[in-house]
Write a structure and sequence with these properties.
Strand content: over 45%
Order of helices and strands: HEEEHEEEEEEEEEEEEEHEEEEHHEE
Shape: elongated
Number of helices: 5
Helix content: 10-25%
Distance between the termini: 67 Å
Strand order of the largest sheet: 10-11-12-15-16-17-18-19-20-21-22
Structural class: mainly beta
Largest sheet: 11 strands, antiparallel
Length: 448
C-alpha cells in the first residue's frame, strides 16, 4: 500500500513540474496568416526558426535551412541557380526558367519568384517561418507546396552595431556588419553588408582548378519613418552579387555513351553520383546580381490596420556550362542568360484582437518580365561522337543533299534559343476567424 502511495505521489509531483514548465514556453509571434498571432494560435502547419537558432546552427543562406526545419529540403543541381526547395517531398521549378517553384519565398512580404533571386546570404533576421501545405489563399500564386516567409529586423531607435567574422576549412571566410540607430525622433536607419568566400570543395583534374566555390557579396539599407503612433513607413533597398564555379555532377549509371566518351579521351568515374571530382574540359561559371526596392506602409486605426507593400526587383544571371559533363570536347562552352524584372503590390486590411470575430481582406498584384537565352555549340569531337553510334549516316545525308560531308554537325555550329515571358497575376482574398467557443475556432478563407 505504501509503495503505491509513493508512486502516485511521484507522478503528482512530476505532473506539477511539467505543468509549471509549460507556462515558461517562450511566446513566438508569427505572421503566417498575414496578421500577428502567437505560434500556438496559428491554424496552419508552420515551423518557426528564430534568429538565435539560425546563428547557433551557422545558417548562412536559404539552402542551409533544411538542417533546422522539419519537412524542408533544398536541392542543388548542376549550377548555382539550378536549385529548388521541397516541402513534404513536393517541389519543382529548378531547370525550367518559365516555371515558378511550388514553394514560394517571401522576404518582408516581397515575393521572390526564382531561385537566382533567393540565394543571397540572409540579412539581419528576426525569424523564418516555413508553412507546410498549400498557402495560395494568402500568399499569392503557386504556393501549392508551401511558403518560406523571411522576416528581418526593422531599424531601431536604439543605437546598435554588430561585426562578425568567421574562418573555416576550404579557406572559408565570412564577414558581416550591421548597424542601426536613430536619425531623428521620427526616423531610424539600418545598414548591413556581408562577404562570403570559400575555395571549391571538389576538383576538376582536367584544368587543375577547384569546383564548387563560393564568392558572394551583398548589402542592404533601410529607413523607418514613424511620424506618429499609428503610422509607419519602411523603405528597403538591397543589392547582392555572386560569381562562382559550380557544380560537381557525378555518374549515376555508366553506359554506352560514357564508354564512347572514354574512347574520345573523356574521363568519368563510373557509377559514383557522390564523386568529388568533376572531369570538365573547362570550369563552369555562374554569375549574377539582384537588386530591389520596397516600401511598406502601415496605418493603424481604432481596431483595424491597413497595410501596403510595394516592390520592384531585378535579377540577372549568366552561366557557361559544360553540358556534356565530361572532359571530352564534344560540346563547346554553352552560355545561358536570364534577366528578370518585376513589381508587386499588396494591400491588406484586417481587424485586431476582437474577442469573437477577426477578419482580413486583401489584394495582391504581380508583374514580371523575363528574357531568356540558351545556346548549345558543338565541339570538335561532336561529329566523331555521332559517327560512333551511326557510322556513315551523316555522310549519307550530306551526299543525298549535295552538301560537303564536313558541313553537318561541325565544331562551332549549334543553336540558340531565345524566349521571353510576360507574367501577370492578380489575387483577391479574404478570411474570417470566428471563436465558436473557448476551445473551438472556425477559420474561413476565400481567394480568387
Amino acid at each position: 500500500m505504501n509503495k503505491n502511495i509513493l508512486a502516485l505521489s511521484l507522478v503528482a509531483i512530476l505532473g506539477q513540474s511539467l505543468v509549471a514548465q509549460s507556462y515558461k514556453i517562450e511566446e513566438i509571434v508569427v505572421t503566417a496568416t498575414k496578421t500577428e498571432r502567437t505560434l500556438q494560435e496559428v491554424p496552419v502547419a508552420v515551423s518557426v526558426v528564430t534568429a538565435d537558432t539560425i546563428e547557433k546552427a551557422n545558417i548562412v543562406d536559404l539552402l542551409d535551412l533544411k538542417a533546422v526545419v522539419p519537412s524542408l529540403d533544398s536541392r542543388q543541381y548542376q549550377s548555382t541557380t539550378n536549385a529548388t526547395f521541397f516541402i513534404r517531398g513536393f517541389g519543382n521549378g529548378s531547370n525550367n526558367p518559365g516555371v515558378e517553384p511550388s514553394v514560394a519565398v517571401f522576404v518582408d512580404g516581397v515575393y521572390r519568384s526564382k531561385i537566382q533571386g533567393q540565394i543571397s546570404d540572409l540579412p539581419m533576421l528576426e525569424r523564418i517561418e516555413v508553412l507546410r501545405g498549400p498557402q495560395s489563399t494568402l500568399f499569392g500564386k503557386n504556393a501549392s507546396a508551401g511558403v518560406v516567409n523571411i522576416v528581418t529586423k526593422k531599424p531601431s531607435f536604439e543605437k546598435f552595431t554588430s561585426l562578425k567574422t568567421e574562418f573555416g576549412n576550404y579557406n572559408s571566410r565570412k564577414a558581416s556588419i550591421y548597424t542601426t540607430g536613430p536619425m531623428s525622433e521620427a526616423l531610424a536607419y539600418s545598414f548591413s553588408a556581408n562577404v562570403n568566400t570559400r575555395d571549391g570543395q571538389a576538383d576538376n583534374p582536367t584544368t587543375g582548378n577547384p569546383v564548387g566555390d563560393r564568392d558572394r557579396f551583398g548589402f542592404r539599407t533601410e529607413l523607418l519613418y514613424v511620424p506618429s503612433d499609428d503610422l509607419s513607413v519602411r523603405i528597403t533597398a538591397d543589392y547582392d552579387e555572386f560569381d562562382e564555379i559550380c557544380c560537381v555532377v557525378g555518374s549515376a549509371a555508366y553506359g554506352a555513351a560514357n564508354q564512347v566518351i572514354g574512347l574520345l579521351g573523356g574521363k568519368v568515374i563510373p557509377n559514383d553520383p557522390y564523386s568529388q571530382k568533376a572531369f570538365y574540359d573547362f570550369d563552369p561559371t555562374s554569375k549574377g546580381e539582384n537588386a530591389g526596392l520596397s516600401v511598406h506602409i502601415e496605418k493603424n486605426f481604432s481596431n483595424t490596420t491597413l497595410e501596403s507593400i510595394t516592390s520592384y526587383r531585378t535579377s540577372d544571371n549568366n552561366e557557361v556550362q559544360d553540358v556534356d559533363f565530361d572532359a571530352a570536347n564534344v560540346i563547346a562552352p554553352s552560355p545561358i542568360s536570364k534577366e528578370l524584372s518585376g513589381m508587386t503590390q499588396e494591400i491588406r486590411w484586417y481587424s485586431e484582437n476582437n474577442e469573437k470575430v477577426n477578419w482580413l481582406v486583401g489584394g495582391f498584384y504581380y508583374q514580371e518580365d523575363m528574357d531568356f537565352n540558351e545556346s548549345i555549340y558543338f565541339g570538335p569531337l561532336w561529329r566523331t561522337y555521332i559517327d560512333a553510334f551511326l557510322p556513315g549516316a551523316l555522310a549519307g545525308v550530306a551526299a543525298a543533299f549535295g552538301l560537303p560531308n564536313s558541313s553537318l554537325f561541325a565544331g562551332g555550329q549549334g543553336n540558340t534559343e531565345t524566349s521571353a515571358q510576360d507574367n501577370s497575376t492578380m489575387s483577391l482574398f479574404a478570411q474570417v476567424d470566428i471563436q465558436v467557443s473557448e476551445k473551438l475556432n472556425a477559420l474561413l478563407g476565400v481567394s480568387y
